[in-house]
Structures are given as C-alpha cells and as structure tokens.
Design goal:
This protein is an alpha/beta fold and about 350 residues long. The chain folds into two domains: about 240 residues, Aminopeptidase, CATH 3.40.630; about 100 residues, Alpha-Beta Plaits (2-Layer Sandwich), CATH 3.30.70.360. Helices cover about 30% and strands about 25% of the residues. It has nine helices and 16 strands. A six-stranded mixed sheet has the order 1-2-6-3-7-15, with helices on both faces. A four-stranded antiparallel sheet has the order 10-11-9-12, with helices on one face. A three-stranded antiparallel sheet has the order 4-5-16. Strand 10 and strand 11 form a beta hairpin. The longest helix is centred in the last third of the chain and has 21 residues.
Length: about 350
C-alpha cells in the first residue's frame, strides 16, 4: 500500500452514517480492486476483498463502514487525522486493508470486509455470518490502541417501554403516565441487581437513552449492557411483573462475547505487538461490536484489534494519531505472518 495515510484521509472525507454507506462502499470496492484484491459487494452492501494465494487458511479482517450521524470536518494537523470514523472504525478498517495489501503472497486468503450498519443493528455482520463460510481466524476491526488486544465485549438489550393513562387533572392522586414510566425505570434497575457498573465487564448496567412523556403517554428507551452468562429470560420475567399496565418491547438482544488469552488469534496479535516493540495488554470492553454478532454463529479463533483511542468514539474531537495508525498497520501485518504459521 503506497500511502495508507492518504487512504484513510480519503475514507474520512466520505460521510457514511449508518444506512448511507453506499458512496464509501463504492469507493472501497474500486480501490481494493486497484491495489490487488478481488473485491465485490454483497446483497447487504458489504464490501468484501480477498487477497493471497488462496491455498491455505482464511484469515478474516472484519470492520465496519458506518459511523454515527454526527458530522465532523476532516483535517490533518499536528500528526493527527481528524474526522468522523477516524477511530470508529475507518482507522482500523484502513489499517486492515493496508496490512493485507502488503502481503499479496499470503499463503492462504486474507478476506477484508467493510460491513454496513454496525452502529444500528449490525445488519452487515449478521448477513456475513449467514452467507459466508466461517474463516479459520477472525480479527474484528475496532479501536483498541496499537498495543492492546480485545478479548471480549459485553452484550446488550435494547428496551422500549410505553405506557398510557387516562387524561386527568394534574392534582389527581392517580399515577400519571410520566410517573409510571419513571417508576418502571427504577424497577428495571432493581431487576438488574444491586451491583451495576458500566465500567466493569462482569456486571450489568443500564442507560436511560431517551424519555418522552406527559400525563397521558410516556415512552422510555433503555440500553442495558450485560455480562457473559447473564440470564436474559429471568430478567425479562422480572420486568414482566413490573409493567404496571405498560408495554415492553425488546428491540435488540445481543449476547456478550469473550475469548481467552490462549486463543490463537490473541496469541498471534500479542506476538505481533511484541515484534513491533510493544507490550501486549489484553483488554475487555464494555460496549459491543461485530464480535458479538458473528460469535452467535461462528465458533472460531477471534479477537478484536485496531489502532485508535476508543474513548474518542462518537466524540466531538474524534481523531487518530498518524504514528499510532501506522504502528497498527505494522502489528496487523506481523499478525498475518504469525497466523500463517500457527494456523
């Protein structure tokens, strides 16, 4: 790859909020074919590019094209690239493309995928898992920092709660819709259990993402993050006993995903970080990614990796250090060498 920084700059300059990734997808389809990949787009709109000899294991690099719909101006300054998606996740995807392009003689296949709508309902990831054969090894492209390898992500349950109450005067002692909805929020927190922490991988937590209501109608949008082994059925049953005449809808449920330090992909990336002069730091994330999505279907060695500071995800100053981005490319290139022998 002659100029990986230019590639990322060009990707950042193409807005791609969830559901509107077509322009970026067309750009990458064309670019991948130009630099040696056999690339195409599937029925869902995902971009898929293969490179290598084809005679050996398949290593899949899976990241996503879409970003949140919060535009940012694209600029390069002070050794940084600024723009929406710089870390989540155009930076990791561009690093994967650049690393794979550097190894056209990889003894097998490196399959790089830019998936659509990960920020929504992971529509692209679900389509990939349904329609493609499982790879021999999988790296999810998400920002971890160049010397970190991610072993797992919390799961999530997106919940919508709606309630209506008869119109009445505000001084009527009967509970109003807005009051019933807020009481349900407290009941949900109690149903999650006494220990809740967004910062702890092994504990559940909830965020009240949206509140709309008045005396007659009210709606809550709730995001619950759940650990490995969380009993979703028991949780749903507890909530069902606390509806107080309201209606509960589970909009989305994704189980938590976790691998181990002995996983071949974790070992391969860790060895690559050492080769590039770093000390690998295994990490667990409290958000979700397409690791959650595909692990429901595929049981293969996997981990997540990518340059970039994940604390900048969706933020007002999303940017990536160019030196970190280039180091991430080096790590991914070295990881492919490690996996080509260990697999």
């Amino acid at each position: 790859m002659r100029d990986p920084v230019r590639l990322l700059h060009e990707m950042l300059a193409i807005p791609s909020p969830s559901g509107d990734e077509d322009e970026l997808a067309r750009f990458l389809d064309k670019r991948l074919n130009e630099i040696g990949f056999a690339a195409h787009r599937d029925e869902a709109g995902n971009v898929i590019g293969d490179i290598g000899t084809g005679d050996g294991p398949t290593v899949m690099f899976l990241s996503h094209l879409d970003t949140v719909d919060l535009p940012l101006p694209v600029r390069r300054a002070d050794g940084r690239l600024h723009g929406r998606g710089a870390v989540d996740a155009k930076g990791p995807l561009a690093a994967m493309i650049s690393a794979a392009a550097a190894l056209p003689s990889f003894p097998g296949t490196v399959r790089v995928i830019g998936a659509v709508e990960e920020e929504r309902l992971s529509r692209g990831g679900h389509h990939i898992a349904r329609t493609l054969p499982a790879p021999d090894a999988l790296v999810i492209g998400e920002p971890s920092g160049w010397s970190r390898v991610v072993l797992g992500y919390k799961g999530k349950i997106d919940i919508e709660y709606r309630v209506t109450r008869p119109s009445t005067h505000s001084t009527n002692p009967a509970a109003k819709a807005s009051e019933v909805a807020m009481a349900f929020w407290e009941e949900l927190l109690a149903a999650l259990g006494p220990e809740r922490d967004h910062g702890a991988f092994d504990l559940p937590a909830a965020t009240l993402r949206g509140v709309r209501g008045d005396l007659v109608e009210a709606r809550l949008d709730i995001d619950c993050r759940i650990p490995v082994g969380f009993d979703v059925d028991a949780f749903a049953a507890r909530l069902g006993e606390r509806l107080n005449g309201g209606e509960l809808t589970v909009v989305r449920h994704v189980a938590a995903a976790r691998t181990t330090r002995s996983d071949p992909v974790v070992r391969g990336i860790s060895a690559a970080i050492r080769r590039c002069g770093g000390t690998p730091r295994p990490t667990l994330k409290t958000g979700t990614s397409d690791m959650n999505t595909v692990s429901e279907t595929w049981s293969v060695p996997m981990a997540a990796y990518g340059p970039g500071d994940s604390s900048l995800d969706h933020g007002e100053d999303e940017h990536i250090e160019i030196a970190e981005y280039l180091r991430g490319i080096d790590v991914l290139t070295a990881a492919l060498h490690e996996l080509s022998t260990s697999l």
